[in-house]
Known about the structure:
Blueprint: H1 3-17, H2 30-40, E1 46-53, H3 60-69, H4 72-89, H5 91-105, E2 109-120, E3 128-131, H6 132-142, E4 147-160, E5 163-174, E6 178-187, E7 205-213, E8 216-224, H7 231-247, E9 254-259, H8 267-274, E10 278-279, H9 280-284, E11 311-316, E12 323-328, E13 336-337, E14 342-343, E15 350-356
Amino acid sequence: MTDALRMSLLTALLVTVACADAPVAPEITDELTIDAMRWHGQRARPVKVLSRNLYIGFDVDETIAALASGDQDVINAAVAAAIQTLLATDFPTRAGAVAREIDLLRPDVVGLQEVYDIQVNIPPLPAIDLPFLDVLLAKLAERDLHYEVAAQVTDTDAQLPGISLVDHDVVLVRASRVKVLGSDGQLFTANLGDPFGIGIDIVRGWTKIHARIRGVELEIWNTHLESGSDPLIVGLRGLQAAELAENASTGMPVIVMGDLNDELGSPMYDAMTFYGFANVWEVLRPWSDGFTCCHAADLSNPADAFDERIDHVFVRGFESVTGTILLTGKWPWEKVAGPFYPLWASDHAGVYAALRLPRGG
């Protein structure tokens, strides 16, 4: 993508979402757009991050419920429906849309959730071999974008007859802009386990890097907390967030991003704020709901019907939270042509933030 085209698309995106450096009335003005463009031009030494849940491609909850039923006919029908939806949501096409976002925004660090390795071999159903990370890296390479894997953790590893679903969280870095000084990836000590008795342990984890960006050392964490609305799961998310936030309470600036699966006022949010983290969306755009979830399971909905903000960027150790934050994968013009109908890149929106780095390194 040429610089001129990228800047034109970025201008359109910034006009649409009305970014700002500080809380102001949400009018969209030329002056505001110009200011945001200047900001994106790095006059303020920003660190730029993008959180993206890649989405497995079908309704996992429905499939788990079928497995838990123990009824083989129900299981067979659910598996066939899941595979049909997986083919319709066509991850290689969606990966191209994510690569387009990265090409447009040029983040320094990309935090990815639901980075699956999927293999299906159940004749006469179509055989499937989808390594999400390899596919996305190939799409980035097609655009001459040089991003490297800096950290990775394996979460749930589901092995069923003829089916393998292995989930990862991954951190990518723009090699020319980010010096990785250290990295790690671990599972939470508090996890859901196998509550349905189907022989699959449902676990979550986090990844982090210690990096130097534009002369400043900082930690950047990426995570995917447990999903579900049951009060016990809500509490579990609070424990996972507290574990992450406590480990991330270092003496250097810290950014935490990811699919945290909960909203303001939740135990998750309370844990993050207790440990001194500020929610970037709440600081920079408190007038906007910032909803990030969810598109239809088959990604066929013509316009978003988001009703919750569960993807977040938190910061700690910054002198002030100053910069720009916006959503991707929310506007109809971002959809791409799938095999049967236009597709969203994921069932979630992405969250992009460009934040002024602290002075003095």
